[in-house]
Amino acid sequence: MARPTFSIAAAAALGWSALAAPAMAQNNMAQGNEIVIGMSVTTTGPAAALGIPERNALEFVPKEIGGVPLKVIVLDDGGDPTAATTNARRFVTESKADIIMGSSTTPPSIAMSTVANEAGVPHFGLAPFPITPQRAKWSVSLPQPIPIVGKVLYDHMKAHNVKTVGYIGYSDSYGDLWFNDLRKQAGPMGIKVVDEERFARPDTSVTGQVLKLVAANPDAILIGASGTAAALPQTTLRARGYKGLIYQTHGAASVDFIRIAGKAAEGVLMASGPVMDPEGQPDSALTRKPGLELNKAYEAKYGPHSRSQFAGHSFDAFKVLARVVPVALKTAKPGTPEFREAIRKALLTERDIAASQGVYNFTEKDRYGLDDRSRILLTVKDGKYVQVK
């Protein structure tokens, strides 16, 4: 498979590596002859389990679309919104990016969206984040929206007679999104939230929060976290003797979660995108072929069972671009405001864009563009993910 041309700068979380300067100069000279894409992801720090697969998946995307080469610049933001903002501003001012992507978690994705909407550059978020009216014009989000994936968890709770639920999640916008959705959707289903606990992404202990949850004795607990940090409440709950159902969000769907959580991962119930099990989809499913394509290539290089929810997000961004870029090229050239506007408009007109994580139909009001085809429910059995039918 053709591979993209990269200018990868290993930028520090709060700085800009000198390695990026030559790439920027090359981009400026090549305006109009290539499509410049700036991607800021988290390849260091607590969320590296998300950003590394997102970066790795770029090895399996096309190096040109519509006959025009792609220039992909990849930078690390360490999960820091300030660093993500710096990276995004460099992309739009120095590299004259036609498109920016990122980041791997919610707070830096919000930061990048703000820059994109100030500059008028299409932005593809790689983490769920709230797309307010101020950020809606230029941003879309590739991951599944929380209300859609949350529903599959709450439906399972109701089917298994869960009446009370406890919550432990990040003390940031990702944790807020999940807690608010839990109350909004589970409450009317007759499921009462009996305790809410929070923790910071870098925390190394949640014993105090877990003791409060165990004391509340809910029928089930939802963990609103992502990456390897999602394993911390999981292992602590089991170590403290909690026997009830434990649910995890699609932010935790990676082999690293099982590696860190170990035996405590057994029996967890986890929302995920269909990329984690395309083999279990019918031949008619539009997500089956892209999912198999990505997983075959990814696991051939990174080993059996290395497939990743997060690799699917960046892979799918290029599936979307493969549909919208040829449309934009009919009216404008890369490196111009007209081209960026043409991409923005094409995102709203192209229908049923099949990808590994769902079928995208973006609208002015729906910047996620996904439906129930974008979610499945997983559990862990004998150290491996299996789909809950």
Q: What number of domains?
A: 2
Structural class: alpha/beta
Number of strands: 16
Secondary-structure element order, N to C: EHEHEEHEHEEHEHEHEHEHEHHHEEEE
Span from first to last CA? 33 Å
Mean of all residue-level pLDDT scores: 92
Strand content: 15-25%
Biggest sheet record: 7 strands, mixed
Quick overview of this protein structure:
The chain is α/β, with parallel strands linked by helices and 389 residues long. 38% of the residues lie in helices and 19% in strands. The chain has 2 domains: 5-144 and 300-371, Rossmann fold; 146-272, Rossmann fold.
Question: What features would you highlight for this structure?
Answer:
389 residues, alpha/beta, Rossmann fold, seven-stranded mixed sheet, 16 strands
